[in-house]
Design a protein that fits this description.
The protein is of the alpha/beta class. It has a single domain, classed as Rossmann fold (3-Layer(aba) Sandwich). It contains 6 helices and 4 strands, in the order E-H-E-H-E-H-E-H-H-H. It has a 4-stranded parallel β-sheet with strand order 2-1-3-4, sandwiched between helices. Strand 3, helix 3 and strand 4 form a beta-alpha-beta unit. The radius of gyration is 18 Å and the shape is globular. It starts with a strand and ends with a helix.
Length: 144
Amino acid sequence: MKYVVLVSHGEFAPGLHKAVNMLAGEEREDVLSTSLVNGMGADEFAENVKQVLSVVGEDDEIILFADIVGGSPLATTANVLLETGLLAKTRMIGGMNLPLVLTCVLSKDDEETSELIDELIEGAREQIKEFVIAVDDEDEEEDL
């Protein structure tokens, strides 16, 4: 199985996990998440990561998403992956958002992981745009 694992500061990863479940189907066993909450130490977070990853089997893969490249959740999770022997079967992406993770969850079983990662990163670049609504200045002045 390919697992999608989400880690973050605060409640971002669990919240994103809930949004993905809403859009991709509840009760998905292939999406896992945990977060580093205010006041939690690195050791406690590492134990949470170990618990979340305990379902990953010998033949499974992990696609890991984190909120910030180089942040404590990603760095700690990478260390746990190394300690548990899972790092070699893991691909990591920093800077997660809903379209990126949702696309991964819906596409991960249809493509090779390396190709999927390339497509996800390119797709994420294309999805970030300013949303502009044209306003007619004359109409706006008349409403005042």
